[in-house]
Amino acid sequence: MHDLRHSHASYLFNHGIDPLTISKRLGHEKLQTTLDTYTHLYQSAGDKLLNILNRKKEEL
């Protein structure tokens, strides 16, 4: 069951769902619980943001 839950959280993070929404969906009382458990999944979001910003910069 834990693997399915982790896969679900991974899927949501990878599809751009914000951590607060994921936290609520997983039933965590605190956002920090979600971040502590799944932060490694959210690190790629920074890379995605940089790619978006770099593309916008090139378009200017």
Describe this structure in words.
By secondary structure, the chain is mostly helical. Helices cover 83% and strands 0% of the residues. The protein has helices at 2-14, 19-26, 31-59.
Mean pLDDT: 83
Globally, the shape reads elongated
Number of strand segments = 0
End-to-end distance: 48 Å
Whole-number total of structural domains: 1
Strand content: under 5%
How would you spell out the order of helices and strands?
Answer: HHH
Helix-residue proportion: over 70%
Kindly name the structural category: mainly alpha
- Sheet with most strands: none
Helix-strand blueprint:
Blueprint (H helix, E strand, L loop, with lengths): L1 H13 L4 H8 L4 H29 L1
Jot down its keywords.
0% strand
Concise synopsis of the structure shown:
The chain has helices spanning 2-14, 19-26, 31-59. With 60 residues, the protein is mostly helical.
